[in-house]
Write a structure and sequence with these properties.
mainly alpha
């Protein structure tokens, strides 16, 4: 990934979000083999993707059938879905756990304020045994 790209994402202003989204699309297209194949199969000319609403979304079902990775890397952690649909679990291959943590903390605090002001209690049966659950 480009140097400083995570910082760019976390510091983007409302005015720059569309431009950044198009930059992320271009990066994903160039560095994610599966996504490139999917976009090409849809016969989308990437030069025509000049507005956010034109960015094609990868079907969520692909996370059950493929390893979705942008660039080549060994995942620091692989999160799995709960499998409540009684089919195969979706997987999320995380390259850098610190960026993942920064992402959810940034989002949470954007909407709710400092995380240390909150106490979240949840009943998660069997989740403590599921070491790869992102919920835990």
């Amino acid at each position: 990934m480009m140097t400083g790209f995570p910082d760019k994402i976390f510091s983007v202003s409302k005015n720059g979000i569309d431009e950044l989204a198009l930059e992320v699309f271009d990066f994903q297209y160039r560095h994610n083999i599966l996504y490139k194949s999917y976009v090409d199969a849809l016969k989308i000319n990437t030069r025509d993707v000049n507005e956010v609403h034109k960015i094609p979304f990868l079907p969520i079902s692909f996370f059950k059938t493929h390893q979705i990775k942008t660039t080549l890397f060994e995942a620091e952690v692989i999160f799995e879905s709960s499998g409540t649909t009684k089919t195969s679990n979706s997987t999320h291959h995380v390259k850098d756990r610190s960026i993942y943590t920064r992402s959810f903390m940034h989002g949470f605090e954007h909407f709710y304020g400092p995380a240390n002001n909150w106490c979240i209690i949840g009943l998660l049966p069997s989740y403590l045994e599921r070491k790869n659950s992102s919920l835990v």
